[in-house]
Amino acid sequence: MDKSKECLLIFAKNSQIGKVKTRLAVSVGDRRALEVYRQLLRLTKQATDPLDVSRQVWYSDHITDNDLWPAEGYAKHQQEGRDLGQRMKAAFGQAFSRGFKKVVIIGSDCPDITTSLLRQAFERLETHEAVIGPAADGGYYLLGMSQFFPELFELKEWSTASVYARTAEQLRNKEISYALLPKLYEIDTEGYLKESSLML
Fold this sequence. Notes:
This protein is globular. The relative contact order is 0.17. The chain has 200 residues and is α/β, with parallel strands linked by helices. It is built from six helices and seven strands, in the order E-H-H-E-E-H-E-H-E-E-H-E-H. It starts with 5 loop residues before the first strand and ends in a 5-residue tail after the last helix. The chain has one domain (3-194): Spore Coat Polysaccharide Biosynthesis Protein SpsA, Chain A, CATH 3.90.550.10. The longest helix is centred in the N-terminal third of the chain and has 19 residues, at 30-48. The protein has helices at 22-28, 30-48, 84-97, 115-124, 163-173, 190-195; strands at residues 6-12, 54-59, 75-78, 102-106, 130-134, 140-145, 178-180. A hairpin with a 5-residue loop joins strand 5 (130-134) and strand 6 (140-145).
């Protein structure tokens, strides 16, 4: 498939002390949590830089110029919606409305995300309608589609341990073919930070 028809959505929080990794900050403090998040952003960019696809960064609060993400390589947008589901649905909807045929979304919390894994996600969409990367906490670190399924962003309690299971159930109930990627850790608590490969 034409690589210009593939799009990677990167959901990122603005790097502000006290507003990132708030669950982790309870244990390690706001400043340490911010350091962890900035390192996670750098690892995410390291994984996404080599990809030959359209790349978009979606900021949580406001678009930031002259930051980690160069404007010439990453289109910049602001997330819209009351909850995470609405925000992801809006970003996917925009991408498909612009003619993309494969759309993959990731967050910026997963230290073990790699370029190879992201390429696998797009490859899986050649033979499946969706692809999902489950996270160790019960959520997912990646979701991809070859057509828009807005119902996947509804009827969920976001940021809970049921998100991946509920999404997989919806995919099966709708008879949407999907591929699974390896389970990875996201860094949301001190326990996951200790389990991770993150070096600070």
